[in-house]
Amino acid sequence: MEMKSFIEEKKIMATVTSIRWERIFLYLDVKVEYAAMQERGGELHFYAVDERFYSTAEFKITGVEEDLYHLRLNVTNNGENVCVPSGQYRIYVCRDDCKMADCETDVSVVKNILDHSRTFLYYNSKKSYTVTFYVEEDADTLPFRFCILAAVKTGMNFPYKIHFWEKIHLIKDAKATLISKKNFLHTVYRFFCILYASKRNHTVLFMSEQNDVIASNLKAVSERMKERGMEKDYQILFSVRAAAAQPQSKKSWILLMKKMAQSGLIFLDDHAPVLDWLMLDEDTKLVQLWHAGAGFKSSGYSRWGHMGCPGPSSCHRQYNFGIAGSKRIAPFFSEVWGINDEQVLPTGMPRMDEFLRDSYREEKTRQLYDKYPKCKGKKVMLFAPTYRGRSKRTAYYPYELIDFEGLYQACGEEYVVLFKMHPWVASHVPIEKKYKDRFMDVGKYPNINDLFYITDLLVTDYSSNIYEYSLMRKPMMFFAFDKVQYSFSRGFHRDYEEAAPGKVCYTFSEFLEAFRQKDFEFEKVEQYIEHHFDYIDSNASDRVIDWLVLGQIPEEIQQNLERVRRANEHRNSLDFLPAGYSRDEKGYALEEEEE
After folding, report:
1. Is the pLDDT of residue 178 over 60?
2. pTM for this structure?
3. Which residues 6+ apart lie within 8 Å of 47 measured at CB?
4. Helix, strand, or coil here: 525?
5. Alpha-carbon torsion 224, 230, 232, 233, what sign?
6. Residues of the chain above pLDDT 70, percent
7. Residue 593 clears pLDDT 70, i.e. is over it
8. Are 483 and 469 in contact (CB under 8 A)?
9. Of 452, 469, 309, 472, which is closest to residue 390 (Cα–Cα)?
10. How far apart (Å, rounded) are the C-alpha atoms in residues 114 and 110?
11. DSSP string, 371-415
């Protein structure tokens, strides 16, 4: 759609007055000025337009104060679940599909504009995604511009020569690529896709590449499908492998390709590395039943630029949908996965259906008191932090920071303490014999959620276990001795102190003092529940089945998804080509020569 331009008439002037970043979000403040009062009115749109004069993204308006527009752009998701592409960009302000202004740069911004540039490293720092701001040269004004570049690590010697042995290695690498496992599996998958194309509509695959047992949300949904007698209408398949950490046989890989090709719907419970490089058939829907509720830790694209983050194309980009506990927390998940908020459905966590059943709670409570009789007649503190370290292999917890003697004395005759470390922490809690009448290491107990039934106070740090525990409506405390370091290495996707539903302490002595005074800041728990749960019942598995297997997504959600689709379609139809330009056969903009 060709657009009219009123830029030369200067009916509207737009100036960037502020630039800032928050993780992957670029924030701009744009001051809009009108030549006359009659020019006011009508909705404004702020489009990022590249050198071809096409828009690849639209800035979201997060607020307006006296003609100062607050804009936001997620550089990892332009609205179509891809990074904003490489290019040189300007920002056009539009109204009624007419170009009204080309954003200028405020003088206060110009002098430090390069300081706002960002580089996001990925693929073990071998590749980068850079965003650089500048002002267009050879202009009478200060046109605001930014450049996005996806770059690869290169040699820096000059002149650069490829030596003989390097040529040999390049030839070997080329041959290896031609016969690589990935190429072979691509072929196998496509073969099975052709074979099963007409049979996949009623086949559902529950898949994990992180665990070798069916568990958590996958277990809850698959068991509920069977309880509802859906096996007679649907073929239910399972593929559970610890492939993310352990080598798999050729037979295992071929079987996985077959199962994925057979399936019209695939449920995941975590990241599946195989889908970082294997594109699913377009007739197969992929749904992420993420195992965690909502903690603080950043992951996926919310920690882009940190070690271990995904590349621009990854498994997450293939999700048709994910799930969350409420609409309000959907942005936490969509940011991680690099998809739109509207694709995160507020079904609730299926694994919590059993957790919320009274009969299950009564049975587990009885079993726990039988297993841990020291808890009977006492209040129970559950000390359950997350791990430190980069991976399962290096995971640990700094036990030396725990003042066991001070904690023992603070508990008195009122409390016993259960230590439940993260499953990745291999070393046992060093409980001395003199403390064993009040302290217990319950690390081998399989399900932390069960322990919540007999817990009176949860002590954690950045773990998502607060999500389930909050529904016990009991107090929590947070021992965050390394908040600064942790926020730098892992990152938080929201303000920690503001979001933590309990007292936050930074030293163990501070924690002990708050514990003695019963300074739990318990009022935060109810606020957390209100924000994180749209449903508190035992029907999350049924909602997942009804909405995603049977296709009965609520009308309001369908309308929101359609609205996003139409907005992207409309933006892609706009042609920002200026007067005096034409397009070549490839769509590139060419300035017409004067006769």
Report:
1. no
2. 0.88
3. 55, 57, 58, 59, 91, 92, 94, 571, 574, 576
4. helix
5. negative
6. 93
7. no
8. no
9. 309
10. 8
11. H-GGGTTSEEEEE----BSSSTTT-B--GGG--HHHHHHHHTTTE
